[in-house]
Task: structure prediction
Amino acid sequence: MARSTFVDTSRIAALTDLADLPAEELDELATVMSEVEVEAGANAITVDDYGTAIYFIEAGHAEVLDDGGETTTALGPGDTFGEIGLLLTGERTATVAALTPMRLLSLSGQDFERIRARVPELERSLRRLGVERAAP
Result:
């Protein structure tokens, strides 16, 4: 995965799961998020890996595979993944495989911890999403 470092606030605000965040939280995120490119056919994350980042899809499509390799969900622009491993379990609960080239915005766990106290709405939103997805 190739990374670049500057992410404009308007790109973050365009993402579905982040659109309702207060402006101050969007500004905090802009200082720590990075852009990640994933090639078609590559895994963005792999089940049972250590969960070290949350990803937000800006462009491209992927599929979520369970630990048996079965497709459970399709993902596209605006979708989020990786929140369960980072916030809830510490491990990835699924594999996300790129169907097309993808452009992701990434928030590392280390950066999230650094700004956590200043982004309470982000944390609430991502926890809610993770709990919903982790429920059987």
About this structure: The mean pLDDT is 86. The longest strand covers residues 53-59. The domain at 2-134 is CATH 2.60.120.10 (Jelly Rolls).
